[in-house]
Each structure stands twice: as C-alpha cells, then as structure tokens.
Amino acid sequence: MSDESQLGLDAEHPGDLHQHDDLLIEVARRYHFQEQSKIDIARDLGISRFKTARLLTEARDRGAVRITLHRPRERWTGLAMRLKQAYGLQHVVAVNMHGASMKQLRAGLGREGALLLQQYLTNEDVLGVGWGRTVKAIADQVSTLPKCNVVQLGGIAGDPGENSIELVRILSSHSGGRAFPLYAPLVVPNEDTAKSLKGSPEISSTLDRFRDVSVAVVAVGSWEPPNSQLRMFCTRDDRAAMTAAGVKAEICGVLLDEDGNEVETPLSPRILAMTSSQLRRVPTVIAVAGHTSKTEAIHAVLRGGFANMLVTDTQVARELLAMHERTATE
C-alpha cells in the first residue's frame, strides 16, 4: 500500500499530500517547540483534537519528528547570567564540557546552537550563515526550522561537505526557504579580483541579500593563538602582516584587535564576506565558539559589540568573566 493510500489521500493529487504534510509539520512544530497543548493546536488550526493526535503520531512514524533520550546536561545558568550582564548580551548558553575532546566540544556547542536557532527563528526571519566547524556542528543537529530564506555570509571556506555552501544547503533544506549561496572563494588573490567578482550577477544577487538578514549564526576565529579557518587560507606573508597589525580575532571575515576594534589590513579588501557595518546592522548575531584557545578572540568580539548572543563552554565563560573584570579595572 502506498504512503498516499495509507494517508487517505489521492496519489493523483500531489497538492493534497503537500498540504497534508504542511499541516503535519505545523502541528509538530507547535507541539514540540512552542509547547502548545493538543487542544490549543486544534483550536488555532481549526481541526479536531483527534486529528491533532493522529498527525503527531504520524509525524513520529514517518520520521518528521525524532525523539531521543540522553542524560541531562548542566547548562550552568548562573554563570551564563553573569556573563550576559557583564557584556550586555541578550542571551548566553554556557555548557559544561569538562574533559571533552575537541570533537565532543564542537558537538556540544552545535547542539546548543541548533536549539537556540530553533527557539529564536520565525517565518519572518532571514537566516545568515557563516562558516566554521562549530557552524557545521549546528547544521548537523538542526532537525527543523521555520520557513525562512538562508543566506551565505562569506565565500567558500572549509573542506568539501563542510564548506559554507554546503551549510546553506543543509539549513535551507530544513527550513524549506530559498538558499542564497555565494559561489566564490572566501579569500581572493587581489583587490581587483574581489571587485570583479562582486560585480558579477551571481555574486551580487547574494551580496544584496545581506541587508535582509535578521538572524546570523557565526563562528569566532582566533588569530593569536591560531585557531581560525580564515587564517588557514592565508599565505605566510598574510599571517605575518596580520599579526604585526595586532589582529587577535575574526568574525565573519571582520578582523579585530584585542579591544574589539576593526583592523584594516591588506587582506581586508580581498575577503568576500559581510562587512563590519553590515554585521552590526543584523538584529540578532549568535556567536558559537568554545575552547580556551579562543577566549581572547571571543572577548574581542563581545567587547566590539559584534555579537549579542553567545554559546560557549563553562571554562571559557569563567575566563571571559575574569578578562572583563581585569579590563574594567584597567
């Protein structure tokens, strides 16, 4: 028996099946993410309580909803609250990942980043996606998103299957919205090449979408100590010049000093990504970054006001609080 027959739908009318699936997803989203009761869902959507219950069961049976059990994680809300107040942030998640490997740390941060995205995104938003291994971890753990468009915030960086184009593809497949990839390298050889690429219709159509981004999810790169994908794409001379210029951090291609001020370098015009002024105009910027090698970089990003939400680990959170106190006394 076909799926359509099991659902009581006519296989010759795929539009009916699509409408049914849209209703199924909406019921599941309201129940599992908005925590609405079945009675409230039925009332709001104009269906019976029994149909609501049947749709929720069907969502699990067909794999639209996957439920997992795991040992609860301590998210250290007190520490997160202090960090939120210290840096004037909208939201902070501090995850206890003591003793975790780097792979486990990224997975833990990705899990919390995915939960935050699913909590804050709405159908009216436009999601901007940066690059980095923690952003890839988020994409891997997102199960569903509101229907919104997804925009790539910088050129191609990372290995095949993990680069920013792939992240946009994954996240847009979960949202069902349009994808706006950026088919160009993150770093190009010279400024003339960058200008030429920005003028091409394929690239400019995505660059024009930067102004619509309302929620951005980005990683934080550390220049010194080195822990940045952008740094990996630079030549030895580039890296030496950046270090000499005082670069400590990078967020979405914006290079910062230890106080969070943007540093203009010969590399800056060669980076194809959202600019600092464009990033500052995004209402919600979620920085997802952990490990003590990035503490100073995260401090620079937060001090410069380039992110207003943070997902990190408890060890970094404590170090950030200590850095903030030292900076305040100085």
Structure description:
The protein is α/β, with parallel strands linked by helices and 330 residues long. The chain folds into two domains: 3-61, Arc Repressor Mutant, subunit A (Orthogonal Bundle), CATH 1.10.10; 77-329, 3-Layer(aba) Sandwich (Rossmann fold). The chain contains 15 helices and ten strands. The strands form two sheets. It has a seven-stranded parallel beta sheet. Helix 5 (77-87) runs parallel beside helix 15 (314-329) and helix 7 packs parallel to helix 8. The chain is globular, with a radius of gyration of 22 Å.
Produce the secondary structure layout.
Layout: H1 3-6, H2 14-32, H3 38-45, H4 49-61, H5 77-87, E1 91-95, H6 102-120, E2 126-129, H7 133-141, E3 149-152, H8 164-175, E4 179-180, H9 191-199, H10 201-207, E5 215-218, E6 221-222, H11 229-232, H12 236-244, E7 249-251, E8 254-256, H13 276-280, E9 284-288, H14 295-303, E10 309-313, H15 314-329
Parallel strand pairs: 1-10, 2-3, 2-5, 3-4, 5-9, 9-10
Antiparallel strand pairs: 6-7, 7-8
Which strands sit side by side, in order, in the main sheet? 1-10-9-5-2-3-4
Q: What is the terminal-to-terminal distance?
A: 73 Å
Q: Determine and state the CATH class of the largest domain.
A: Alpha Beta
Number of helices: 15
CATH topology label of the largest domain: Rossmann fold
| Radius of gyration, in angstroms, nearest whole number | 22 Å
Largest sheet: 7 strands, parallel
Element string (H = helix, E = strand): HHHHHEHEHEHEHHEEHHEEHEHEH
List unreliable stretches of 5+ residues. Answer: 1-12, 70-75
- Strand content is 5-15%
The overall pLDDT, averaged over residues, is: 87
Number of domains: 2
